[in-house]
Design brief:
Chains A, B: It comes from Gopherus agassizii (Agassiz's desert tortoise). The structure is a homodimer of 502-residue chains. With 502 residues, the first copy, chain A, is an alpha+beta fold. The first copy, chain A, contains 8 helices and 20 strands. In chain A, the strands form 6 sheets. In chain A, strands 2, 3, 5, 6, 15 and 16 form a 6-stranded antiparallel β-sheet that branches. A 5-stranded antiparallel β-sheet of chain A has the order 1-20-17-7-8. Chain A has a two-stranded parallel sheet with strand order 9-12. Chains A and B meet through strand 4, helix 4, helix 5, strand 10 and strand 11 of A and strand 4, helix 4, helix 5, strand 10 and strand 11 of B.
Chain lengths: 502, 502
């Protein structure tokens, strides 16, 4: 069970004054702490209904308009209302009737991390009281959540993932702000020690080969501050996934979601991706990929390896081998191209009865599927997802652990046009990194460097261009190709300011 | 059981005439076909004794001198004897007493691939007779094998791996030379068809989510010629490993080996690496890595994943979790940094009884070990390798499958100084890519571009410089640091000629 977490929407970065009509606290710690326990995610809109990110502050009329799958109005934060932290730009649009409710969700917050005090530390030691000049720790946070099979998991993750990250960081508040290497071991609660096991032979382990293979028990691996933050984010995704699982048992939360989360902490940007959303940095016109997509094709070998080691997960309906097409029963005995879990290349094998099963991984590109069901292999939720008309669970093949990439903001002098762009697959399905970079650069050139709305205008333009214009033959791009019929959500985050990087 | 394979040491490439004293057939297919069956690897020196690559053609006196671990004479092909195919340069030296017998082995051959004829195709169809203008297929081959715990596996692989590659290519002779895409299915021997299974629900599979997830049964994946060659090399490594396993049962073959194999076929160079040897291309001074090393550190997650899924392989002595140092019994209940199989970062966990086990992966850099025993995670052999003083097998954690990288020789106009360098870890332990490139460039500049011995001189210089000079305090490099005390074997292969690339 997670401890309670105090979170705060802290003051806007860069000295922008409160916008008229703002309803969020700005200059003080936030209202009663939200705990990432089950209670925090109860009630609408989790599990159904239609909701949009709180930071859009839509009126009920506007919410209704945003839910119009025919009109597909592009939404972004209004200048007259609240401005997003870090001058972040944002825009989104609903899908063209692909699913009933918009399945993208987003979050943009500044979160204050409280030190964790041991429940047994009584009286409270000074280091828990914020005395002795110890600095508070806070992080900036952006999240995009692309849901499938219902909006429940995406809504829940958008409201809670940053609190889980906060919770994972609570043990690290002082460690991360201390320049000395992190301690390998921390004091803990004393346990009743069981009798020491006899650990021979390894207690005096020696090996015959090679001669330099003697285990070195005195080894100590150095662990960096950065890898602690990565570990905290990875574990936060796991806890978030466990919480969704608990909620799904009560049927309040449906489906799963891809999650792309960005944390700015102590000078570094951590981009954590689990799914097929994408993040790129555009710096001086150059593109730096900050994520990769996790799909049945990119994770084929991990999935096949699991199916090979745990064939019972395949339910006697699937084979872990890959084939370039379905095999027909009459082809038994012929030779067919195949790929095993440890192969990158293809070879021929004689077709046996077992090869008639459906391949665990099947299809190409956007049509590739795990067990004929799902096209992404990492994300949150999906605990109840089964192969159609069967009792075979998909979840064991999905991973909730993100890949985290790190970008050190202090290593480069950024100009106002250098940005981090986050987008769900609705954006990237119809455009590529270069085109996105060109659009962003073009839009930003049209605004003064200190115009706070320029990043939202860039996000807006990206969404409009990838959605296209409604013509007789559907939504069309400028080149008359089909526009993206999916939800599209985009953050444009300036790297050059107005953040205070120190 | 593998079919018989006819192999040939074909004519030297580039029109170099037979060297005086050459004992190998040159201009005609080789002597009676060697079959990569068990019989082909019987007798000395497999399993013991001391042997050097046949292409060195050492006299018994020279062999004795090569076995001198104190003198460490550098060996390379003598100009007066046989020259290696493709003007290949080669040099090697024995270790400084690290192990009794030199554990590196090497091979350099040209292999002719015969079409496979079905044993049932009687009378022999025309396509099996080489008529109808069908071209023969041959490949150039270079292999380096760095043995451990005995020379048996390395010797056996050096004599047979290319025959296994040849065997895997036999089905592909015509397919690879046909410009149309490879057929997905080949005719085979008809089997007695069992009654068709009821494959519902997937026979009419549909899925609820996402809406575009319907399986497309009519999909056909395009497979390239290149990926067939990669698959053939991968499967050849597997068959080689199986053959070593069969031999090890009879105790004739000891130990295991890293394997780095290069195949030149139809204009492309395939570099297959399983272990910690390394291949780089030096082209116009630029370095192109052609392999990566497989070690407990680079393959940590694959190994931990296996230990996590199959804890019985850890024999109740090891934990799949990684810790930065050994945990002491008295630390139970404290918090320690750890890394799980799906993490890149580190986090703290409360130490439990199970965490006192030895970590599956432990140590850093060259000292990293799997189960405190072995420092490489891919290679051939090691079927009998166990954790010291226990019955825990290491082999399940090792992979015999290489990573194959491809370089298209036809895409670039190579000059005589562009080379592919292959080296065992004895070379790379004391030098880096840049230094190797500089030495090679420096040596090659000292010889005429058409001097056939220039590549052997480059290999020779690389070996001499990484071995160092024997001083009072051992073998020392030019900078007085310790030289490599390991076996060192190096191929230098010219990319610009004299090969005929078409």
């Amino acid at each position: 069970m997670l401890g309670r977490v105090r979170t705060a929407v802290a003051q806007l970065v860069g000295g922008l004054g409160p916008a008229p009509g703002a309803q969020h606290p700005r200059d003080s710690p936030a209202p009663p702490p939200a705990a990432p326990g089950p209670s925090a995610c109860r009630g609408p809109p989790v599990g159904g209904g239609f909701s949009r990110p709180a930071f859009l502050q839509l009126t009920s009329e506007e919410l209704q308009r945003a839910d119009d799958h025919a009109g597909r109005a592009v939404q972004s934060p209004r200048e007259s209302r609240r401005r997003l932290p870090w001058s972040t730009g944002y825009a989104e649009v609903i899908n063209a009737g692909k699913s009933q409710h918009n399945e993208d969700q987003a979050c943009c917050e500044v979160v204050v991390v409280d030190r964790r005090c041991s429940p047994r530390c009584n009286p409270v030691p000074k280091e828990c009281t914020g005395e002795q000049g110890r600095k508070d720790l806070y992080f900036h946070y952006w999240g995009l959540f692309d849901g499938h099979a219902g909006s429940g998991a995406a809504v829940m993750a958008s409201k809670l993932l940053h609190l889980h990250i906060c919770d994972q960081l609570r043990d690290l508040v002082d460690i991360l702000q201390d320049s000395s290497p992190p301690p390998l071991c921390l004091p803990g609660i004393a346990l009743e020690l069981p009798a020491e096991r006899n650990r021979a032979p390894l207690a005096q382990a020696d090996v015959e080969l090679p001669s330099d293979a003697l285990p070195r028990f005195h080894l100590e691996k150095a662990v960096s501050h950065e890898s602690l933050v990565i570990g905290a984010i990875e574990n936060a995704f796991k806890r978030m996934d466990e919480q969704i699982e608990r909620e799904q048992m009560t049927r309040l939360v449906a489906g799963g979601c891809c999650a792309l989360a960005v944390v700015y902490l102590l000078g570094k940007v951590y981009v954590a991706n689990a799914g097929d959303s994408r993040a790129i940095i555009i710096r001086n016109g150059e593109i730096i990929p900050m994520s990769r997509e996790f799909t049945p094709e990119t994770e084929r070998q991990r999935l096949q390896f699991l199916g090979f080691l745990r064939p019972e997960l395949l339910g006697n309906e699937f084979t872990h081998l890959e084939f370039p097409r379905r095999i027909q029963h009459k082809e038994l005995g012929k030779k067919m191209l195949y790929r095993d879990q440890n192969m990158h290349g293809w070879a021929y094998k004689r077709i046996e009865e077992d090869d008639l099963k459906f391949p665990l991984i099947y299809g190409e590109g956007k049509k590739a599927r795990v067990m004929a069901t799902i096209g992404v292999t990492r994300g949150l939720g999906d605990h109840d997802l089964k192969v159609y008309n069967s009792n075979i669970h998909i979840k064991p093949f999905l991973s909730c652990v993100p890949e985290v990439r790190v970008y050190d903001l202090t290593q480069y002098e950024h100009c106002p046009d250098d940005v981090l762009v986050l987008g769900t697959d609705g954006l990237w399905d119809v455009t590529n990194d270069r085109e996105v970079a060109d659009v962003v650069t073009e839009v930003l050139m049209g605004y003064e460097p200190n115009d706070p709305c320029r990043y939202t205008m860039a996000a807006y333009e990206l969404v409009v261009r990838s959605r296209g214009v409604l013509k007789e033959r559907g939504w069309r791009l400028a080149n008359d190709k089909l526009g993206s019929g999916d939800d599209i959500s985009v953050f444009v985050i300036p790297l050059g300011g107005p953040g205070n990087y120190t």
